Hints:
By secondary structure, the chain is α+β, with helices and mostly antiparallel strands. The protein folds into two domains: 191 residues, DNA ligase/mRNA capping enzyme (D-amino Acid Aminotransferase, Chain A, domain 1, 2-Layer Sandwich), CATH 3.30.470.30; 87 residues, CATH 2.40.50.140. Strands 11, 12, 13, 14, 15, 16 and 17 form a seven-stranded antiparallel sheet that branches. Strands 3, 4, 5, 6, 7 and 8 form a six-stranded mixed sheet that branches. A hairpin with a 2-residue loop joins β12 and β13. The termini are far apart. The mean pLDDT is 94.
Amino acid sequence: MLNQPIKPMLLQPLLPTQMKKDWKSSLKWDGFRILIHYDHGMVRAFTRHGTEVTSRFPELLKIRLPIKTGIFDGECIAFDLTQPKNQPPKLWWDDAMARFNTKKESAVKQIATTLRAHFPLWDILYLDGKSMLNMGFMQRREALSAVVESSEVLSITPLYDVGETLFLKAKELGLEGICQYKPDAPMLLDTRSNGIVKIKAYQYVVCQVASVRLNGGFGWGLTINGSYVGVIEFPPPSDAIRALNHISKQLVRGENKDWRFLDPVISCKVKFQCFTKEGKLRSPKFEEFCTPISVQ
Length: 296
């Protein structure tokens, strides 16, 4: 298990109405999943898909723990060190992905000076030669708390007793959502578990459809008050696609080989995870048309 890629347990998605009242809750960090292997002072890091990313994060070299070996489950997030000091730090998914996508050694050294990687941990899978997988979640958390102290590099994701309050706060702050943990849930690798779940705090906004992709798969380009905010790439129901295709012929302003550009008069309600740092919608999905249209 140690120093080998592991396919970790995936979190079962739930709706807000399915929230568990007697489980522990935590914020869902807006970064990417990472598993940190500690072997007598040497550190390696893998994504949930098994990609080793150790060389992309020199921050990992600072980790020193009072154990011989361990495998920790957590998230990689990034702090923008260029933000004004008098403002509370804002975490952006874009920044975490910028760190993830930077691979060349010289580029890694440069980006680490402005985007500092941090690794909030929420679970431990292996400790000093012993698998922790069959222990309950709260047992594993006790073991995690005993060996990890918060630092510039590592922290332990805080747990809260009232999930509903935490979810509402996450939604208010535009965060991704929350996770919930059944106290006695074991860790089940390479599967989804009903004992550890995620509840996303989706946001909704009304956009205008300003373009239709002609090549390279489905796509509707979106604007809000004339500003481009992203592309719906997950196809809506077929009747909605037919309806827009029918009326779009009357709205064409121009086109190139990849896109047909429309007068942005057709509005639709869109569900998305959060705004990106550049003000785009992350993973927008069509909900319904706000402008009445139908195929004649």
